[in-house]
Amino acid sequence: MTRSEWLAKNFTHVTFDECVGNLRVPKINVDLTYGLISTESKEEFSKLVFHLMPSGTVVDEIPDEFYEGKILLLRNMLTKMLMEEPNHKMADRYLNILERRDKNHWSKESKQLKVEQKEDKNLSITFDIV
What is the distance between the alpha carbons of residues 7 and 17, in angstroms, rounded to a whole number? Predict the structure, then answer.
């Protein structure tokens, strides 16, 4: 089995939780999702995958479409988490990840972003286009 085949078979869900609704997914999905956040490129992610895949797996290149698709799903999941998060400190964490992983849409250099919790406990997210 090759690395790309192993990923296609085992990285079935971009998730931070082993329970997705009623479905239970292997912990490797959580580890690989965190790997997408902690790495800066497909090459760096490939090196991480090398350490997570079983011994004897043939090393090949991860297809661009696979990697880009997982990054897209991760960004979408983080955006949803950001918009639904009632705690402003957690929202700040998600925003920091999005700023790092999706600079084109979330970078502070191109937009002014502010997350704060109002006195009435509502979360306020402000986008000022520069």
Answer: 18
Q: Which of 39, 43, 57 is nearest to 3 (CA)?
A: 57
Distance CA 112, CA 23 (A): 38
Please tell me the number of Cα atoms within 13 Å of 25 on its side-chain side: 19
CA distance 125 to 71: 23
Q: How far apart are the first and last CA of the chain?
A: 49
Instruction: Indicate the domain borders of the chain.
Output: 1-72, 85-130
pLDDT in tens, 85-115: 777 787 788 777 777 777 776 766 645 566 7
Q: What angle do CA 115, 81, 85 make, to 5 degrees?
A: 50
Residue carrying structure tokens 């964490």: 93
Q: What is the pTM of this model?
A: 0.72
Q: How far apart are CA 82 and CA 116, in angstroms?
A: 12
| Identity at 31, one-letter amino acid code | D
